[in-house]
Amino acid sequence: MAGAAERSDLIPEEGARGRRLPMGGPARSVWEAVMQGAVDVAVRAYEDLSPGQRERVLVDSANVPAQARTALVDVLRRARDFAGAARLLEAQGADSEAAALHEQAGSLLMAAEAWLRAGEPARAAAAFERGGALERALELYRSLEARESMAHCLTRLQRPLEAAEVYHALGYAHAELEALRGVPSEHPRRREAVLRMCALLDEQGESMRALVLLADARQESAAAREDEVLKAEHLRLLRHLGLSDGSPESGESSSPVAERPGATPDGYEYLKAIPIFGELALEDLKDLYRVARQVVIPEDTTVLEKGARGTGLLVLLEGTVEVSSGPGPDARRLNTLGPGAWLGEISLIQDGPTSAHVRSSSTVRALRVTRADFQHYLATHEAAALRIYRLFTHNLAERVRVLST
């Protein structure tokens, strides 16, 4: 049998001290073009190969000089074989570049491992989360003390009480409430979850909603109906709302069904009404709601400064703001916005300057979704990201059409 140096499918590389490049079979045209520096020709030749032939090129690349491998990586990138390019880069120890290419190829778990080797645990955690390896993601988020991301992973892992504890520590009342809603009726700590939800709603001035929630929870089982702690809380809420004369009998007979506030829009309903979120599935929308933070803006405060970089989405819950053409005294007033209105949704997608000046005309309570939080949400919710970008581009195209007619 002939030795490797005598094989007809190898030709010498100039200046490589007699080393030879693989040149046999259909891949010959790829290697010839690589040798000659004809990148476009090499790309087209590589694209014309079958999957098996492309695999052979990758295997053969282990035996070529570093310069040829580097050139081949460029060819693979341009041919959109991101997975192949990532393999070559990993072999060279370029884990950061390889991780980004694994993500482009959709190989999220491989990307996560590469990010870890590259010393970027935050990016590794996000890739693990996107790839469904939630326990691995949670472990990394814990090590990074990324508590918001921890809470989100715990929610997706169906560990709502743990998620609620994290949200409570962060002071995110509405996110804590949403997490507690996930505690099933048969859970041994269901009573604790119900009482905490009632307390949160009561603190937010939503005592009637708390009463409705408690009444429903007491119908979940015979034990819940007879639970003395739930009975006492039920009676307290009835008294607080003026629906009871204070006797246990009146508390038991009173029902808030006729006054259910389910049709009253709240922060969740306002978020749901924003057009670019119009195709989000229920769980994706709930996750986005948990990302939002409630903020209070004092009266006569600049909310958005014209020309400044957008800070994200703001959804008004209470109070009003004035929208004007600029900050000066000669600026033209454009609009007055109140509860249910939203500002800054474009800055979630595009990092550009704000086109108008917005100032609060009263104390404002609002939900804020920062650009950074939203970008993380998109990175970990691929289906939601696709729907959001599709609606965003559709709305943008419609605006362009209107302006051009």
From TrEMBL:
<feature type="domain" description="Cyclic nucleotide-binding">
    <location>
        <begin position="276"/>
        <end position="395"/>
    </location>
</feature>
<protein>
    <submittedName>
        <fullName>Cyclic nucleotide-binding domain-containing protein</fullName>
    </submittedName>
</protein>
<feature type="compositionally biased region" description="Low complexity">
    <location>
        <begin position="246"/>
        <end position="256"/>
    </location>
</feature>
<dbReference type="GO" id="GO:0003700">
    <property type="term" value="F:DNA-binding transcription factor activity"/>
</dbReference>
<dbReference type="InterPro" id="IPR000595">
    <property type="entry name" value="cNMP-bd_dom"/>
</dbReference>
<dbReference type="InterPro" id="IPR014710">
    <property type="entry name" value="RmlC-like_jellyroll"/>
</dbReference>
<dbReference type="InterPro" id="IPR018490">
    <property type="entry name" value="cNMP-bd_dom_sf"/>
</dbReference>
<dbReference type="InterPro" id="IPR050397">
    <property type="entry name" value="Env_Response_Regulators"/>
</dbReference>
<feature type="compositionally biased region" description="Basic and acidic residues">
    <location>
        <begin position="1"/>
        <end position="17"/>
    </location>
</feature>
<feature type="region of interest" description="Disordered">
    <location>
        <begin position="1"/>
        <end position="23"/>
    </location>
</feature>
<dbReference type="GO" id="GO:0005829">
    <property type="term" value="C:cytosol"/>
</dbReference>
<feature type="region of interest" description="Disordered">
    <location>
        <begin position="241"/>
        <end position="264"/>
    </location>
</feature>
<dbReference type="Pfam" id="PF00027">
    <property type="entry name" value="cNMP_binding"/>
</dbReference>
